[in-house]
């Protein structure tokens, strides 16, 4: 099972709010991948390791296999394709 988590801040972060619709669209394009997004302001204990937003973590069988910082739509798509 493959999963990707988008760690973001509230919508005061312009970059985070710009990539979120694309992240949601990709969930339809990659149906075998579980898409999760986590607001770091709402769950600081579990997201204290996140230093930049947005940050994407890619997991396979519970192990982190990749990460991406920033909101590059093409790069996000490529990493989803690579890991799915």
Automatic annotation (TrEMBL):
Pfam families: Thioredoxin. Gene3D superfamilies: Glutaredoxin. Residues 5-77 form the Thioredoxin domain. Coiled coil: none annotated. This is Thioredoxin domain-containing protein.
């Amino acid at each position: 099972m493959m999963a990707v988590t988008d760690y973001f801040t509230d919508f005061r972060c312009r970059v985070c709010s710009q990539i979120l619709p694309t992240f949601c669209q990709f969930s339809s394009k990659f149906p075998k991948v579980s898409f999760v997004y986590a607001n770091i302001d709402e769950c600081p204990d579990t997201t204290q390791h996140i230093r930049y937003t947005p940050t994407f973590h890619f997991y396979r069988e519970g192990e982190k296999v990749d990460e991406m910082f920033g909101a590059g739509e093409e790069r996000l798509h490529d990493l989803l394709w690579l890991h799915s």
